[in-house]
TrEMBL record:
Signal peptide (from-to): none
Pfam family for this entry, one: FAD_binding_3
Annotated protein name in UniProt: Bifunctional salicylyl-CoA 5-hydroxylase/oxidoreductase
Top-level lineage group: Bacteria
Origin species: Streptomyces purpurascens
Length: 783
């Protein structure tokens, strides 16, 4: 398991007094004249140089306890964006860097003796020692005092106007003021060692070795005309089984050299006091305290697989210097610095986390076809996507599409997918979205227009909201149902419209019971807030309210379990007669069936609680009963919450077993959502943030999956489908913003074909409307 440690106040180590009285309050000017920089890495040195260049009268001292050329690692990769910022801020540094950069375009991925090359990526790197030399020279030119082999004095916050703590991942400053910064340090699953070899790779390399002990990977890139960085990485268990825990540095290096001899072309590896370590992600609640501010790895870390550590530190330095120059007060400047950098860093950390986890779980992908494996690796962080990879290397991307089975000119999202007897013409699903607009559970004109519009909009599958199986199973008074014949007749009106007016679009129904989350106000009146009047009694796996002020549900008796199972089967029969093409059983988001699955909401001591198998028992009984009455040719899917985002709740590993159990009982696909099970959850939001859970279930069980959650662009859909991380993509809010999202996705990609068909009355609008010119006329003559 990953270990996340929230640092306690450091008073136990005798430094609590410093944490509260050490830094003096920011003065009323943002123009500090005495500046101390703790840490002589690239970020600290560059911050010192920038501040001195902005005001030569500043007294700036850099304190570094190591020697000038002591450094961790060998090469540094910088992006064009970062270099552009350096060029504008200090052309002298930029020019020096330019002279030493090694540049290349290709990424090579070697997997099972097959090498795939993708071009057009554009990298620039140089030696870390050379980078430090350039920054040392620039600091000395500007008059910055550099103190090596010297620990920073503890009274710097009292003797200086500003203290920049750039003292790295093991930051003493961060720990000294832990009760203010509130750092969280997460230790991950892989061991890695940073090495070098004395010959230049001609690309950024990823080499995968499948050994008797497990999977190992090499990350490598050139940083000089005669040298390359080499990082060897593997899971902790693989590292131990291979015996690396018993080898010294020299023996480890020799063993790695033999394993990756082909990639190294026989050249030996060398170290720089290298040691095996595990990566730690650092996050801080605050980045400044009084006149002390964190910068670079002291404030945040991002996994080396996306090459961001030095880049982030240098960009921090640029932003800090700019904010100090622009703001009138130091407190304002430090707040502005954090406000500017925090969203950028958070985005980078999400991408780095996705990349890190991909390599941690690389074993899941080894059986992919070689090109798809390479595409999956390239798009792992979601920073590189199908569309921009097509721009970088159209030949490679088209080869991946052909291997996947895309007809020429067909984006992956417009390929068909079969579930039991239903063939969906494309991979887009309109996700279930509660509309809270029914009258006594009866869908009306609103539902006809809402679902009909999205069916006309081109999606392969349109799902209803959660349709409740009983009056007591509603979330709100506005929830739709399928517990009366009148409701079924109203739903038939919707399905008839979809089948007649949007042929080729399937419509599915999601059946569920609110459980302990029922009898609440309409969403826009107060989400999950109890009704002020007209409440109905709630029931759940256990008598635990959703929120402290929520109604406490009754724990279901055996007889009530039987009644609810029969309500689901009766609703399923009505759904079949109403003409739905697919049925989904809602076992997610803390509703009744989900409440049985989670150990946080199921405290039963009978046959339906306790072990994971017992917690699965009732949801599986309901599934079996529904499958028994649902027409055999029509697919039946299940939505689950793959994690509760809460301590002691359902984990990703649990979700795999839950999915495996439903698949064994005949589920045709698993719709993988997360959370909403307990009110005190702590979700880790981000772009397509739930997809890794779907990916894991798909790889581990072989059952088709539907990915959902913050998937918003057609580029995301194409990327996820082509990488093999999901089979279908469900989008909710994008379809509220644009009912014709799928049609517009086709138009924007220039696609016409069977994967999406414009309704005849809409065909005149199948091309993007013309807009006014946004580009300025080019000069007719340049001298």
């Amino acid at each position: 398991m990953e270990r996340t440690v929230t640092a306690a106040p450091s008073g136990a180590r005798g430094t609590a007094r410093q944490a509260t009285t050490g830094p003096h309050p920011p003065n009323d000017t943002s123009h500090p004249l005495r500046v101390a920089v703790i840490g002589g890495g690239p970020g600290g040195l560059y911050a010192a140089a920038l501040l001195k260049r902005l005001d030569p009268t500043r007294e700036i001292t850099v304190w570094e306890r190591n020697a000038p050329d002591d450094t961790f690692g060998f090469g540094v990769v910088l992006s064009d964006e970062t270099l552009g910022g350096i060029e504008h801020a200090d052309p002298r540094v930029y020019e020096a860097l330019q002279r030493d950069f090694v540049r290349w375009d290709d990424i090579d991925i070697t997997h099972r003796n097959t090498r795939q090359t993708s071009g057009g990526h554009g990298f620039a790197a140089l030696g870390r020692k050379r980078l430090l030399e350039i920054l040392h020279t620039r600091c000395r030119e500007l008059g910055v005092t550099l103190r090596f082999h010297t620990d920073a004095p503890k009274d710097l916050p009292q003797t200086h106007d500003l203290v920049i703590a750039a003292d790295g991942i093991h930051s003493t400053t961060r720990e000294t003021y832990a009760d203010v910064f509130h750092p969280q340090v997460t230790t991950h699953h892989c061991r890695y060692i940073w090495l070098a070899t004395d010959f230049p790779f001609d690309s950024f390399r990823f080499d995968i070795a499948e050994t008797e002990h497990g999977v190992m990977q090499l990350h490598g890139y050139p940083y000089a005309p005669d040298a390359s960085t080499v990082i060897i990485e593997m899971r902790e268990g693989v590292w131990q089984r291979a015996g690396f825990d018993e080898l010294d540095e020299t023996e480890s290096i020799e063993r790695c050299g033999k394993i990756f001899a082909e990639a190294l072309r026989g050249h030996p590896l060398r170290s720089n006091n290298s040691a095996w370590t595990t990566f730690r992600t650092v996050v801080n609640d605050r980045w400044s305290h009084g006149n002390v501010v964190l910068l670079g790895d002291a404030a945040h870390t991002a996994h080396f697989s996306i090459g961001s550590g030095t880049k982030l530190a240098v960009e921090d330095a640029l932003a800090l210097a700019a904010c100090l120059e622009e703001r009138d007060a130091l407190e304002e400047a430090l707040a502005a610095y954090e406000a500017e950098r925090r969203p950028v860093v958070a985005s980078t950390q999400r991408a780095a986390r996705a990349s890190l986890e991909w390599f941690e779980n690389i074993g899941l992908y080894l059986d992919q076809p070689p090109r798809q494996f390479a595409f999956n690796l390239l798009t792992r962080s979601r920073r590189v996507t199908h569309d921009n990879l097509r721009l970088r290397d159209a030949h490679f991307t088209e080869a991946v599409e052909r291997e996947f089975g895309c007809p020429s000119g067909t984006p992956p999202m417009f390929t068909p997918f079969r579930l039991r007897g239903l063939t969906l013409r494309n991979r887009v699903v309109v996700s279930p979205m509660d509309m809270y607009s029914a009258d006594d559970g009866v869908p009306g004109d609103f539902h006809l227009v809402h679902l009909g519009a999205r069916a006309l909009g081109g999606a392969g599958l349109v799902m209803t909201e959660m349709v409740c199986v009983s009056e007591e199973g509603r979330i709100t008074p506005g929830c739709a149902g399928l517990y009366t014949g009148r409701q079924a007749e109203a739903w038939r009106r919707v399905t008839d419209f979809v089948h007649a007016q949007a042929p080729g679009t399937a419509i599915g129904v999601q059946l569920g019971h609110s459980g302990r989350k029922g009898s609440t106000k309409l969403m826009w009146e107060g989400m999950d807030e109890p009704l002020q009047e007209g409440n109905w009694p709630l029931m759940a796996a256990s008598a635990i309210p959703y929120k402290p002020y929520s109604q406490t549900p009754r724990a279901l008796s055996r007889a009530q379990l039987t009644d609810i199972r029969e309500q689901f089967t009766a609703a399923a029969c009505r759904a079949a007669r109403a003409g739905f093409d697919l049925l989904e059983l809602h076992c997610a988001h803390g509703y009744l069936l989900s409440g049985f699955l989670s150990p946080l909401t199921n405290r039963r001591t009978d046959a339906y609680g306790g072990s994971p198998e017992k917690r699965l028992r009732f949801p599986l009984e309901v599934f079996d009963a529904v499958r028994n009455v649902w027409p055999g040719e029509r697919p039946l899917t299940v939505r689950i919450s793959a994690t509760d985002w809460a301590e002691g709740g359902t984990t990703a590993e649990d979700a795999v077993e839950i999915a495996r159990a439903f698949a064994a009982h005949g589920a045709d696909a698993i719709d993988v959502s997360t959370g909403q099970v307990v009110a005190d959850e702590r979700p880790e939001y981000g772009r397509s943030y739930q997809t890794p859970f779907a990916d894991r279930i798909r790889r581990a069980t072989g059952v088709p999956v539907i990915a959902v959650g913050a998937i918003s662009s057609w580029d995301d859909v194409n990327s996820l489908i082509l990488a093999g991380r999901t089979d279908l993509c469900a989008l909710a809010r994008p379809h509220l913003y644009d009912p014709h999202w799928t049609l517009h996705a086709a138009a924007e990609q220039g696609y016409t074909g069977p994967g999406v068909v414009w309704p005849a009355p809409y065909r005149a609008g199948s091309r993007r409307p013309q807009t006014g010119r946004t580009d300025a006329p080019k000069p007719r003559l340049s001298l």
